[in-house]
Amino acid sequence: METKRDNEEIREIRSRLRRRALKARENLSPQERRRGAVLMTERILGHQWFYGSDIFLGFVSFGSEIDTHELLREAIRLGKKVYVPKVTEASEKMEMQFYRLTDMSELREGYRGIPEPSGETPAYLYDPAQAQRTLLLMPGAAFDGYRNRLGYGKGYYDAFLADKGALWLRSIAVGFLCQMTEEIPAREGDIKPYQVLCF
């Protein structure tokens, strides 16, 4: 049984790993960013899960995250049903939902300045029968060789995937190579992406 001290130690380790990975990401040169984004876009577009999907749950990159804009535009052009996250307040807590995106011009500044859909387009509705033809792409602050993922501390993706086991089997976290770190201690409720791809 974990003690309070164990929990505090895990929290500190996770915080340290997150800070270190984010600092490394922020220090990447424009050339390194561009290279990583191009490689990621090509890899996802050529991935069998993307090729076989009708629905693409992406994310709109922000700040120093690996750039997903070209990937989203191409997914839309290819006729995928593209959905991206919007964070809203529900029942006195913040939660993440995905809304349909048909053009990048539909994005508006949202939670913490992140570009988001308006929330007036159709929301993504989970259907286990459709999960085999759906791909979920996840951002993150840090990743390890065991597919552990450190997000930004709010647990939005863990909460979103908690009751969507079939979708978890089609989840990929993406980032830069500098975000790969030593083993990340997991906490109860953490959900690993099924694949981690860093460039």
Descriptive report:
The structure is a single chain. The chain is 31% helix and 22% strand. The protein is α/β, with parallel strands linked by helices and 199 residues long. It has a single domain, classed as Rossmann fold. A six-stranded mixed β-sheet has the order 3-2-1-6-9-10. Strands 4-5 form a two-stranded antiparallel ribbon. Helix 2 (30-45) packs parallel to helix 4 (69-77). It starts with a helix and ends with a strand.
Quickly list its features.
single chain, Rossmann fold, six-stranded mixed sheet, two-stranded antiparallel sheet, 10 strands, 31% helix
The fold-level CATH name is Rossmann fold
Q: First CA to last CA: what distance?
A: 38 Å
Please give the CATH class: Alpha Beta
Task: Please tally the helical runs, counting DSSP H or I stretches of 4 or more residues.
Answer: 6
What is the name of the CATH superfamily? NagB/RpiA/CoA transferase-like
